[in-house]
């Protein structure tokens, strides 16, 4: 069984709005709905754990009413990692065949993830950890105290996207280990996995269009993309 964990419990500090970005509207629907629509359309995914900030529970309940696939709401944690852990704990209570379950962990702030979802899902048939990446376009400087301290070779730099797919038991065990070590600050599950597992995740191609809505400018980019899609 494949389960989507859709993360929508963040505060959206960089988005700088009264409401978190995942419930902001983009072309007539909320950003989180784009991810829920993808899951609804993919035959390989059976259910969703939607991780939310309980303050907005009424809004999320209203949003999820229209879907036919099972969606379980789960209260999030203080960090992204803690939100994922809470979802994994809830899922652990819900499922019986844990060894046969995979999870696809996704940032709801990435509305255009359809192709990447399908790719990760396909790869999960044969692998236990799958992470989508795109080559970094810019040169990256590492700066500390306003000083350039490192310029890593761009040929080896990639941006990491979601959804990231894992066998449930493996990623759940890794999350438990991370907490035991006092870590709550991993910003993606692939890096948490590779810290606590000997084998590295398998990489697949991500998609430049699967960008994350982080600030208000990204909404303009998303609107531009959507308006071009309908006129083409
Ligand atoms: N997220 C979450 N729980 C948290 C923090 C983040 O579920 N405690 C989710 C966000 O809702 C988002 C995804 O993780 O879909 C990626 O996080 P990010 O883009 O950093 O979103 P926010 O944390 O909400 O934004 P910011 O960092 O600007 O506050
Ligand atoms: Mg954040």
Describe this structure in words.
The chain is α/β, with parallel strands linked by helices. It has a single domain (2-231), classed as Alpha-Beta Complex (Spore Coat Polysaccharide Biosynthesis Protein SpsA, Chain A), CATH 3.90.550. It contains seven helices and twelve strands. Strands 1, 4, 5, 6, 7, 10, 11 and 12 form an eight-stranded mixed beta sheet that branches. Helix 3 (80-94) crosses helix 5 and helix 5 (168-180) packs across helix 6. It is globular and about 50 Å long.
List the helices and strands and how they pair.
Elements: E1 2-8, E2 25-26, E3 29-30, H1 31-41, E4 45-52, H2 57-64, E5 70-75, H3 80-94, E6 102-107, H4 114-123, E7 129-135, E8 142-144, E9 147-150, E10 158-160, E11 164-167, H5 168-180, H6 189-196, E12 202-205, H7 216-231
The structure holds cytidine-5'-triphosphate and magnesium ion (MG).
Quick structural summary:
With about 230 residues, this protein is of the alpha/beta class.
Sheet/helix structural class? alpha/beta
Q: How many helices?
A: 7
Please state roughly what percent of the residues sit in beta strands, choosing from under 5%, 5-15%, 15-25%, 25-35%, 35-45% or over 45%. Answer: 15-25%
Small molecules bound: cytidine-5'-triphosphate, magnesium ion
H/E series, N to C? Answer: EEEHEHEHEHEEEEEHHEH
Write down the CATH class.
Answer: Alpha Beta
Helix content, binned percent: 25-40%
